[in-house]
């Protein structure tokens, strides 16, 4: 013991005198060799970290992304977004103001009419609506993935009997609200089907999807009777609503013929030719298009789309015998592909955006079609609106803020793709409406549940406040378009992106904090620099969708998730479903002629900053 104490004291003494052999550190003696090992090890660790930072930086640079976008998150470092209001990118077309659904009879039901009124109020311009089953046979009773109008039957002698009562009640609901039908010519009436039995399906969530493919999906037994049906429908519409009104609609033939058609490709082209000729005979100025193909970027989908375009450009018309077929708009579908991974939903917007890219590129291959309106007839995170999260757990994203932030991030890319390819992008139909008399927040892909708006509807309310022209936006946390096309948004950091517009003396900036993994996260600081506004007197308002704002789902859960809420609870839920202003204005600073706005944005949040000066 005494010897150790003497050596310890000696070591300290030598350390005080600047000794060269031993160094004291606390109560542990370190000799020179030990220090050499320690500093070598520390140097190795630091160099290893530096190597990986440089490696990741090089990868990001090669992919066109700054390293800062994917480095380890630093809560104290704000995401920096710059908006240049004096640099126009393109028109702020209301491409989002298009909606659709399988069940047309919901249109004139209580919650359907309420939601359509709200949708119609979203946009200063007309909102277009698309629905399936407008010519299906039946008494008009609604069911999941089914609807009917009984527009066509035949008497005992096989003579056509037209009944427009239910179709009119559907279109009346739209027109009364200033909305426009994207009128789908389909599906096959029972009396015309080549294979009519069984006719109405009884599909329910969890059943095989092909169970819905019954007699309504077959070609007509008489193409002339089919053409007469289409002719009389358009003629009746002109008589009821007026020529000018019907000229503002779009007509389109069928839906997803690579899945919803029990005939051949050539038989579908024949159906299209007879339909288009009938529409033009009834109203030469009517607008007709197709073909609303599914899986546009898949080999099968692309084959169908390209064959259809070739037929319309150069094929022999089955109805007239002439070259080509009328084509006033090209329609195709785009769907994402979420998955459940270790209990967490992971979104994937890449397939949806690649479908849109393929549709744009396919049309551009034909110079005569390059200026045609292009409509994404269904544009969604995945395929089945009526498949709830109970039977399809990967659809659990639909009730909360994942759906709203995904929608904001994807529509920004739709605009970017249209800019890149220089096409006439007219609209993208969100196949999301409502389901009558279903459980509360069941996880359908809908905009409202039992008359209560879900968070996603508030994104469209935000879009409705954007007008004029889109302007240049730069963000150090926004993933490049090509990266999103390749691998969606799955880097180490979330994306904090933006879309901005300007009209006269008002402007708007939409911001989102998004990642494919359906996880919540703390608010991150965002520094928004606004260039090109020559005024220090700016009225600024922030609207927000997050867990605490514009969110009926979270309000419902706080109530205990009631399946039979009372009147007071319903009133509270309806209020929670509206777009909410933040109680405080964002912090404004003026620096060297620039206006800087500072906010904090949680993961999955969407904010809209509106400006007036």
What does this structure look like?
The structure is a single chain. By secondary structure, the chain is an alpha/beta fold. The chain has a domain at 2-62. The protein is built from 14 helices and 26 strands. The strands form 6 sheets. It has a 10-stranded mixed beta sheet with strand order 23-22-26-20-19-18-3-21-25-24, with helices on one face. Helix 10 links the parallel strand 14 and strand 15.
Q: Can you describe this structure in just a few lines?
A:
This is Glycosyl hydrolases family 39 N-terminal catalytic domain-containing protein. The protein is an alpha/beta fold.
Question: Judging from the principal axes of the Cα atoms, what is the shape?
Answer: globular
Q: Major sheet: order of its strands?
A: 23-22-26-20-19-18-3-21-25-24
Q: How many distinct beta strands?
A: 26
Distance between the termini: 82 Å
Helices and strands: which structural class? alpha/beta
Q: In angstroms, what is the radius of gyration?
A: 30 Å
Largest sheet: 10 strands, mixed
How many helical stretches? Answer: 14
Average predicted local confidence, pLDDT: 90
Strand residue percentage = 15-25%
User: Runs with pLDDT <50, length 5+?
Assistant: 1-30, 32-38, 40-74
